[in-house]
Amino acid sequence: MHSRLDACATAYLTNLGRTEAPTRNSLAETIREIERLLRPSYAPLNGCLPMGLRFAHLAAYAAAAPSGR
């Protein structure tokens, strides 16, 4: 999870906010996988998943936003 999120964030920052379809697809797939792993309510198994999910949603939002150029 961490390596995939790092790769998506790196691609976003390297391309100055422009992401290509494979990066966006990988990010969407990562979000689905994290959501599938999360347990309802507080569970020790969740660990860092909620933080990773928040970061993934933020990266997906940024990737979907128009660049304004």
Q: What's the SSE blueprint?
A:
Elements: H1 2-14, H2 21-37, H3 49-64
Helix pairs in contact: 1-2, 1-3, 2-3
Folded structure, characterized:
- With 69 residues, this protein is an all-alpha fold.
- It contains 3 helices and no strands.
- The chain has helices spanning 2-14, 21-37, 49-64.
- The longest helix has 17 residues, at 21-37.
Features:
69 residues, 0% strand, elongated, mainly alpha
Summary, kept brief:
This protein has 69 residues and is an all-alpha fold. The protein has 3 helices and no strands.
Stretches where pLDDT is under 50 for at least 5 consecutive residues are none
User: How far is it from the N-terminal to the C-terminal residue, by CA?
Assistant: 31 Å
Main sheet: strands, sense, barrel = none
Order of helices and strands: HHH
Helix content: 55-70%
Task: Give the integer mean of the pLDDT values.
Answer: 80
What is the domain total for the residues? 1
Strand percentage:
under 5%
Tell me the radius of gyration.
13 Å
Structural class call reads mainly alpha
